[in-house]
Input
Amino acid sequence: MTDPMIQMQMDDHIRAALREDMPFGDVSTTAVMPDARPGRVHLIAKAHGVVAGLSVFSRVFELLDPAARITASVVDGEEVEPGEHLATVEADVRVLLEGERTALNYLQRMSGIATYTAHVTAALAGTSTRLVCTRKTTPGMRLFEREAVRLGGASMHRFGLSDGVLLKDNHIDAAGGVAHAIECARRAAPFVDKIEVECESLDMVREALEAGADIIMLDNMSHDDMAAAVALVDGRALTEASGNVDAANASTYADLGVDFVSCGALTHSAPILDLSLKHLEVLG
Output
């Protein structure tokens, strides 16, 4: 992992996941392997996709056994094929058994997101439009899921509510209108923050432009209205297309000329990538 936030917080997340899975130990493993024995197991791909999260996978075993050794034959962001050998894990056999599901849960989830993201990114290839993620993430998993999005080839939107101003429909309703919402945000936000406004109609786009919005999100508009909105903006603000974007329809946004396409499906609808730990060997 290259993201320093993940490096700093990864251990706490993993420890919580391990406590959830075995709050009072692993009774199955204790039954068949009561004493420490060295062992080895192999990580195998069972489907085509983009692998992501190898360092999280490895860290699960390292936290359970500081002497664990993980030797990977691929790197994050690399495409893998069914049957391909991805890594070997050597540790106390009890650790291999105890950490297996938690390690695979992280790796399969992250690899599935990276794989799905790569599909959507490919649909926008050759255009100037950039794919970005959203906050529609699994609670407690945002660090990992966003890293998987990055490894799949997409860019980052704001990480959370503290990172930037995005005035959505309910903010606008609370403020009493687009212009007043933007005026309030200008007074309250740091001068370095851009102000993005969600617009559902061409009239809202006009109002947001007149009020000086920096970024205009074109939310759930028809293709024709979205094209008209981009023409109306005419470079005076950045534009972001949003609303039910997925791998099947992302290419329809390529000819609009929007700067960004945001896609919640990257994190809320990506299936896992099928991976497995197989062929466990007791070495001593």
Observations:
- The longest strand covers residues 38-45.
